[in-house]
Amino acid sequence: MLERTVGRAAVLGEVPLADRSEVSILDVACGACDEAETLSEFFRSLRSPGGSPPASTLLVGTDVRERELDEAKARFRSGEGRAFEFFKGDASRLDGHRELRDAFDVLFFRHQNLYHGRALWERIFEQGLSRLKEDGVLVITSYFDREHALALQAFEKLGAEVVVTERNPESRKLITPGKSVDRHVAVLRKKR
Prior knowledge:
Layout: H1 2-11, E1 22-28, H2 36-45, E2 56-63, H3 66-75, E3 82-88, E4 104-110, H4 118-130, E5 132-142, H5 145-157, E6 160-167, E7 172-173, E8 180-181, E9 184-190
Parallel strand pairs: 1-2, 1-4, 2-3, 4-5
Antiparallel strand pairs: 5-9, 6-9, 7-8
């Protein structure tokens, strides 16, 4: 699904990440970062018409849960044009993390939990957007229809605009009614 949605945005010319030597990705509230490999490989394969794909990717994952971060560190090793870094950090205070670079090409939120603390998640969204390059892209997935709509509204209120949003027909249903893994995927950018 990520490939299709972001790929559609790239075709529309809205993902200007090809022809860069490196694509930097910030995975906010990453947990065990199950998506690290997919994100790294996908953004490393982007190419503009007649251009070349990025030579490397840097994926930085941050979360408050140390156990999940330890799992991510054990699973994902840097090498072959891919670098992975994981650190414990409060995503609502990204501006206080000196170990982060100033800006990233891609900001990624997988399954944010807007229902569990809307004000907190809006602060996390705001902090994330402050780390997104002016020509960068933000990718978000959601479990629920309503949560997805609320997240998109929150990002738009903070100065982002939706490029593409799609429901994932291959989403895996979960036991909770109306909830499924990566039910929706959207690509956003800063308003121009």
